[in-house]
Write a structure and sequence with these properties.
- The chain is an all-alpha fold.
- The protein has a two-stranded antiparallel sheet with strand order 1-2.
Length: about 280
Amino acid sequence: MRWRYFIILQAIILLVVSGLVYKHQDKVKLVKKPPTELAQWYKPENKRQVWLHNMFKLRREMQAVAFYAETKNAEYLQKWVVQLDKHYFKIAEMVPNWQKKLAVSTMADLSNASDKKDFSSVLVQHKVLQESCDSCHDDYQALTALTYRTPDFSKIQITPQLSFVNHMDTLTRQINQIKISAQDGNKSLALTSLAELNHGMNTLGETCVDCHKKDRKPYPNEAMKKTLSSLNESLESGTAKQQGRDLGTLAVLACARCHGTHRIAYGAKQKLVKEESFSDLIKH
């Protein structure tokens, strides 16, 4: 009798939880976080992007195997199958937890079919192996890129006393202060804020080149400098329309273009790597 009550209670709890999940399905997105062991195969923990390069090799080898099986070229098919086998099982060497995700028997069947020059069977096993790869990519590829290939701006310091994040917040406030002051006819404060913004942008540029080492794109670039100069002139003696145009152009050139690349990815990464407390989970 007691067991019956216990089972009924468990069923009720399960129904309640299921109901809560269903009710909040529009607010919750389930994702599979990549294992932390991956970090050692990405920069900055590693000097090279080892994991990434192994994936590139696998993609190239999968393409080559399919090509030579379709063209019935046994010599080159065997060459590429050997490389595919090597780099496929390297996945488990680097991340042992993913050993169980590998299609071991499929890879073995593909290799055997290649040895026997059974090209049609190679293509069948190749398709099965590709589906296995795609399944893992669906779960982890985008999240892994966000986690390990997106810069972590929270650890960058402009000076020992000033973080990158706080500096960016200051730049945003300066741009808004220019707009507010110009709109309210406070030319002096608008020009002062512009001068501070100009200085802050140059300071930011000195930090950007730490990552952009090869292309060395200047920040602010010539287009930004011309817009800053034009905005200064329009604040001095221009119309509200000219001021708005110059400020809008500056916001696109100096803020939006970089944010389109970095801010969206960084924001997503912060959400992904954040450890949720029990109270946060209860709220959701």
